[in-house]
Amino acid sequence: MANAIATAHEHDAHHAHDEHVVLPQHLHHFETEEQQREAGTFGMWLFLLTEIMFFGGMFFAYLLYRNWYNPAFVAASNQLSVKLGAINTAILITSGYAMALGVYAAEVRKKQMLVWTLIATTIFGFAFLGVKTVEYKEKFEKHHVPGASFDVKEFVNPAAFGLKEEPLAPDMAQKTQIFFVLYFAMTGMHALHMIIGLALLFWLIYRANRGDFSSGYVAPIENFGLYWHFVDIVWIFLFPLLYLINKHVG
Amino acid sequence: MSAHNDAMNTTNPEHAEHHILGPGTYTTIYVTLLILTGITVGAAFIPMGVLNPIVALAIASVKAVVVMLWFMHVKYQSRLIKMTVGAGFFTFFVLIMMTMSDYISRAWGQW
Amino acid sequence: MMSAPINNNTIVNIPDQRTAKMPKRNYINNEHGLLSWLFTADHKRIAILYLISITFFFFIGGAFAGLIRLELLTPQPDLVASDTYNKFFTMHGIVMIFLFLVPSVPATLGNFFIPIMIGAKDLAFPKINLLSWYLYMAGGTFTLAALVLGGVDTGWTFTTPLSTHYLNTHVITAATAIFIAGFSSIFTGLNFIVTIHRMRAPGMTWFRMPLFVWSNYAASILMVLGTPVLAIAIVLVALERTIGIGVFDPTKGGDPLLFQHLFWFYSHPAVYIMILPGMGVISEVISTFSRKRVFGYTAVAFSSVAIALFGFFVWAHHMFIMGVSNYSALVFSLLTMLVAVPSAIKIFNWAFTLQKGSITFETPMLYAFAFIGLFTIGGLTGVFLGSLGMDIHLTETYFIVAHFHYVMVGGMLMAFLAGVHFWWPKMTGRMYPESLSKLSALTSFIGFNITFLPQFILGYLGMPRRYHAYPAEYQVLNVLSTAGATVLGVGFTLPMLYLAWSLKYGAIAGNNPWQATGLEWQIQSPPLTENFTETPIMDHEAYDYEWLENKTAHEVTTVG
Ligand code: HEM
Ligand SMILES: [Cu+2]
């Protein structure tokens, strides 16, 4: 079979790929459509790998500073609303559930179901960001946003604000800023990923409605699903790490 | 083209059969995740000392694994994908452990 | 032994120039116009885009190297102010590392040849491939912007808190540049990994792949797993500068060493991102010009993966004097010794490949010899630096500068030039002028050693790096170094000129001027846009010269 290598045939090489049946989504440099699909999934997973490492840097910073400044982390974490955090977790999980159903819908070629599940995914995504906005706003009002206006008075003298916390020594109270830095950096980066995801969802809904994914071509839905679930997973870790540090003390 | 598509899969041993999960499975997973969220909130209010963060992280890890295995279909994927996922967490683990080895041994006894 | 008409001094076998013709259709003349290049999805054209742009940045980086050496001609700070000098070496480092060495072999030669070597029509994601070139260019533009707006003076390492608190230069612009260029390299790596896993031709098993593919595969793993950590470290530096978030600021409870850990977690593996693809080139070249299968193929293949793996366990050897714990420094020092082992495995296997081979001395082979010698010196001095006690004496001196230039210039740049010369006939269809290129290889080798050998001595004697003035007793060696740099500059400029010349006037190369075995040599030069007219079937091992001999003439044909 050695002569199969780079053998030129009489016919023009340009037409070589006319031989096989070409589906619209099939790119010609893949031998089979299956190969293409597997390549796409694998590529998406490799991308998620880079995301793990990207968030990993911040998770490590969290681990370090939480060990160093545990009292500050406890006190600062108690300023977050477990209720909103838990609701948001549920919202995000629901959004992920809708997405998973969307993948199913694409696989069994149910166009209406796909469009509606994608819309549900989007709505819950926006709901999550809405709750996040409320939370951020409260942080601004309380001067818990790191930077020039950051204020530690609630942590130095919690009783004056009606809080049942242990007061922190001034230098430890300063370290609450590190907690809020990580809080904003991690949830902010997470929210950024959500926003990117929502933008992609609009485009997918448009295409799903056009019928692009109703004939067995599910790769974009499937791969976007991977991305969306990954964003879920990040939040699954952020929720206990940021909101639930030491609830039983307060 | 199928002439070159080797049935024995000698070129792509990483290949796995495609598997469709139904709404029933997804619903079970969804409910599991909600219950686990409830448990993690509940557990946070029980004083367990050093165990609190460990329990919280353990539950979060279980949730993450559940999402990956079913929502992200890793359970039904080829070995290659499973190894890829593993490689990501392994490298993250290296980052944490090797860096921590410095921080911990810088201040023995204070950790 | 060979059926082709060759004599003992050369294996070059090019067609009779009186009758030879360039193939009528190929990837270069497939489409015309600038836009057909800027919007191409053909991996070969993207490789050419990369080749042009990294060459451009190489000469920018080189210009700064020239200015640095000029300043160091005399002990007094007479050419530029100290701030300006800091900007010079920073620009030199950033451009050379992030815009030249990291993409050099993978994005050009890897992009061009990995798909062909494994018998694929293209990379798995051609559009993402183009995207990574655009990201690279955006990163380059930001770097140039930082330069034009007034420069950066952090050094390529962005050391905190210097970069976050004490400098008033364009750190954020440069950080943006590196962030963006980082994603370019992530996408290249991702594309390679998927391609190598998923697009191999029938019969192309893992252990039939050329070693060039293996080494790029290993480098890609590092790109995908390491670069995002650099990205987040850089983002945090930018946030620290703009809004003072305090993660790296000791006055707010942050730890500057955390930045070092994150930065070197990437940047040590990054040195292997830079060298591994070069090692792949050397394997190809050594095999071809000694007419032997690479000795210990499996060991060489696995040593690439081992380097990638071990590469993640040694980074703190860049931080020995920065206040890491003594225990941890000890562990990292020992692990550093370990990582030298797979590199040594490669060196020994290349040496055994040469043994009893029918060696000829074409230009790529000269560069490969330069690589082996210089990389060995660079690697061994790395082991010096990795040993805790030695490092205290040598760190932050010119010894380090010499070490990494021996691996990066003596190693990687030589490998890059070896590869460019080796595959030039395939990429362009034309030969470069042989004697001129031999001359310039020799010039580079001599110039390189005159430049950097004195720096080992300077460093050992205690001359610190990154200063623009020095005690008068160091002048002799510095003058030597600057003189060598001039020779080196000539050695690197010559190839640019004669390679450009050869595009029009070079001899027509034919399909397989080197009688090499890789799939890329069995197709026409320059290749067709679709690489192969028919999916190849691989039925022999890599570097199988007997297979090549027994191939009948008509198996190698061109279209048109
Ligand atoms: C063969 C094994 C190698 C070993 C054991 C090794 C070891 C080291 C050590 C210990 C240092 C730190 C010195 C110090 O800061 O005090 C160092 C610095 C450096 N090495 Fe290597 N090295 C090796 C190969 C390489 C390769 C292949 C490259 C690049 C292609 C490279 C590039 C560098 C660079 C750029 C620095 C300086 C970083 C800076 O600016 O501070 N090394 N090496
Ligand atoms: Cu290193």
UniProtKB/TrEMBL annotation, chain A:
Residues 42-247 form the Heme-copper oxidase subunit III family profile domain. The chain crosses the membrane at residues 42-65, 86-106, 112-131, 180-206, 226-245. GO terms for cellular component: plasma membrane. It is a multi-pass membrane protein. SUPFAM superfamilies: Cytochrome c oxidase subunit III-like. PROSITE patterns: COX3. Belongs to the cytochrome c oxidase subunit 3 family. GO terms for molecular function: cytochrome-c oxidase activity. The lineage of its organism: Bacteria, Pseudomonadati, Acidobacteriota, Terriglobia, Terriglobales. Pfam families: COX3. Keywords: Membrane, Transmembrane, Transmembrane helix. InterPro entries: Cyt_c/ubiquinol_Oxase_su3, Cyt_c_oxidase-like_su3, Cyt_c_oxidase_su3-like_sf, Cyt_c_oxidase_su3_a-hlx. The keyword Transmembrane applies. GO terms for biological process: aerobic electron transport chain. Signal peptide: none annotated. This is Cytochrome c oxidase subunit 3. It is found in: Cell membrane; Membrane.
UniProtKB/TrEMBL annotation, chain B:
It is found in: Cell membrane. The keyword Disulfide bond does not apply. GO terms for cellular component: plasma membrane. InterPro entries: Caa3_sub_IV, Cyt_c_oxidase_su4_prok. Keywords: Cell membrane, Membrane, Transmembrane, Transmembrane helix. Pfam families: COX4_pro (PF03626). It is a multi-pass membrane protein. The keyword Transmembrane applies. This is Cytochrome c oxidase subunit 4. It comes from Granulicella rosea. The lineage of its organism: Bacteria, Pseudomonadati, Acidobacteriota, Terriglobia, Terriglobales.
From TrEMBL, chain C:
The keyword Heme applies. It is a multi-pass membrane protein. InterPro entries: Cyt_c_oxase-like_su1_dom (IPR023616), Cyt_c_oxase-like_su1_sf (IPR036927), Cyt_C_Oxase_1 (IPR000883), Cyt_c_Oxase_su1_BS (IPR023615). One of its GO terms (biological process) is respiratory electron transport chain. It is found in: Membrane. Belongs to the heme-copper respiratory oxidase family. This is Cytochrome c oxidase subunit 1.
